[in-house]
Amino acid sequence: LMADSRVNVEGLREELRSLDDKLRVYDTLNATAGSMYAIDDEAENVCRDNLCVISANFALQTITLDAYDGNRADEAVRRYAELEEGEGTGVYLLARASSSSDLRVAYPNYYANANEFCDWLFKQLS
User: Fold this and answer.
1) pLDDT tens by residue, 37-62
2) By the 8 A CB rule, do 112 and 56 touch?
3) What is the 3-state secondary structure (H, E, C) of 30-42?
4) In 3D, which of 3, 26, 21, 32 has the Cα closest to residue 121?
5) Is 35 in contact with 61 (CB distance < 8 Å)?
6) CA nearest to 61, candidates 16, 5, 126, 112
7) In 3-state terms, what secondary structure has residue 58?
8) Contact 50, 69 (CB under 8 A)
9) DSSP code of residue 7
10) Which residues contact 70 (CB under 8 A, 6 or more apart)?
């Protein structure tokens, strides 16, 4: 809900509250915000030369980071394609970054960091 003189912000908040009453979005998100955990054994080795595959598996509630050296880029692309074409219950990303912390900053949704959104939503519903 961005401040805009042409928008009825309070009206939008009321609509958001009404939807939350019906769908219980805030309660669901808040309950699961910290439930996923990262398995990033290769995180310390991530550098610009690596091609990384991030797998967020919702069924197992895990986020896995696999880093492939530059000379194994074709293997990373194949792995990513297998994941995307499979019938898994997750989301996948093929990316490069200077470090694993850069990946977390650039793609927070893959690390299931819903805390900021939950904070914003709580303020809107209050």
Assistant:
1) 565 555 667 888 889 898 887 777 77
2) yes
3) HHHCCCCEEECCC
4) 26
5) yes
6) 112
7) coil
8) yes
9) S
10) 49, 50, 51
Q: Please enumerate in sequence order all residues whose Cβ is within 8 A of that of 59, keeping only pairs 6 or more positions apart, or say none.
A: 88, 89, 90
> Whole-angstrom distance between the N-terminal and C-terminal Cα of the chain?
14
> What DSSP designation does 110 have?
G
Q: For residue 49, give both structure tokens.
A: 């030369």
Q: Where are the beta strands (DSSP E) in 1-126?
A: 37-39, 51-57, 62-68, 90-95
CB 100 within 8 A of CB 107: no
Tell me the one-letter amino acid at 5. Answer: S
Tell me the pLDDT tens digit for each residue of 56-90: 877 777 778 888 988 999 999 999 999 999 877 67
Is residue 117 within 8 Å of 25, Cβ to Cβ?
Answer: no
How far from 73 is each of 67, 69, 80, 86, 120, CA to CA, in Å? Answer: 10, 7, 11, 20, 39
* Separation of alpha carbons 52 and 38, rounded Å: 14
Q: Give residue 112's region: left, alpha or beta (phi > 0; psi -120 to 50).
A: left
